Amino acid sequence: MKAGPEVKRTYQSTLRGAQAQSTREAVIAAAGRLFSEHGYAATSIDDIAAAAGVSRATVFTSVGGKPKLLKTALDVAIVGDDEPVPLPERPRSKAIRAERNPRKYLALYAEMVTEMDGRMAGIHEALRGAAGVDPDARALWESHLAQHRQGAANVIADLMRKGRLKKGLEPAAAADIVWLLGPGMYYMLVHRRGWSPKRFQAWLTETFISQLL
Length: 213
What we know:
Layout: H1 3-38, H2 45-52, H3 56-62, H4 66-79, H5 91-98, H6 102-130, H7 135-162, H8 171-180, H9 183-192, H10 197-212
Helix pairs in contact: 1-2, 1-4, 1-6, 4-6, 6-7, 6-9, 6-10, 7-8
């Protein structure tokens, strides 16, 4: 007698969960797009709500206020989705780290970086601009830079296990090079100078190999 209602309640709960996730994704996408196009300061919660087709209250309940929206939009841009799986633990990252040839490793890494930068260059610039006017954004910017620098150090550590660095190049300096060639560089060359992502990827691959190996 109880089986029917339990199945119904489970179905309804699953449906509500899927709807809530869909709403959250729409809000994050709208926030990321508007921050990238208009900047952090010029984008309001009302703008985001209108773009996502939801109420102002729903923006807060599904994600949060502007600082939380900025952080979440950045996080989603980095990995490509809203799943709580860190980038190093994702299958593609593991497959790249498993490549033993240092040149092939850097080529695969450059390919992944190009795709990531394509998603996050705009929000990266929005965050950089917001850091100068908003304390919360400033803290997020500094944390983002620190995490990116640590990721660059991890890449160099992986690379050194596969082969030698360029003669005279210290690991810290090598990590600085990887750190520098990030979304800001993509933004300048692709968004500002009109390079194609394919051209950027080829240049990034060549630059990594020539500067690091």
